[in-house]
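Morning F.,

Quick status update on the modeling queue. The single chain you submitted on Monday has been processed. Sequence for confirmation:
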Amino acid sequence: MRVAFAGTPEFAAVALRDLLAAGFELPLVLTQPDRPAGRGLQLQPSAVKQVAVAHGLPLLQPRGLRLDGRWHEDAAAAREALRQAAPDVLVVAAYGLILPQWVLDLPPLGCVNIHASLLPRWRGAAPIHRAIEAGDVETGISIMRMDAGLDTGPVYRMQEMPIAPDDTAASLHDKLAALGGRLLLQTLADLRAGVADPTAQPAEDATYAAKIDKREAWLDWSLPADVLERRIRAFQPAPGTQTRWDDMPLKVHAATVVPAASAGHRPGTVLAVQPQGIDVACGAGCLRLTRLQKPGGKPRDASIVLQSVMVQAGQVFASGPPPDAGAP
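Structure tokens below.
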């Protein structure tokens, strides 16, 4: 079986490594163009590109795939490369580009997508983050045959995975990526044997995992403490969450809900400062900030940060983004 691959971040790179380890023939890999990253904004290759280069795989980085779009020359080159590669199937994992119909129609066995949710729940760009933020007790992996809709295609395989109370987006990502690779190999075996039989997604109960806007990273203290605690975990490590103290941004890397009396206090009011953290009144309940980062510093336990950031009980953290944060 000839398997072409399209993906970009580490989630996709895990699946690509699994395909290589299983001995699949990979005639072409597609990934996003190199992007500026880090303080120096130097161009960085994607995780998938790094794997492809390390294994000498044919690689293409089109800026777009629409033949009538802005990057039509890139799209034409990608179409020719895919035709020459002649894959039986195209595996797609967090690629970042919408596949036009010509791509969906090209492989005889179609395009197979690894999606990090139990479809139809959390279709869209950020299923891992949104599942944690919503307080879901489980999520999982769906292996889907792609169609023209947004994560609407029929599902070959699905497997559940519990969400632990302390899971962050990072920890859940790693577990789901490993599960996705395993289910992908099982699905490809079914396709090769001619026994794959995808099941249509139910029309009801679909939810959309919207892309995270950076304005959401600013904590709104009018929300309940448990909602904020989940958002902190859901946005860890990226885009992260933060608040404002005395006009200074303070990143919040970890927090826990504590049974402190917060009734009658303005949301954002510091109720107590102690080595274990900063207790902050929320719209309902109290949140203890346990791991923080001040500008120019590194993430530290609250006891260390509080040696140089003089937060006192009675002070108030600002809610939401600053006025100059711009529109979503």
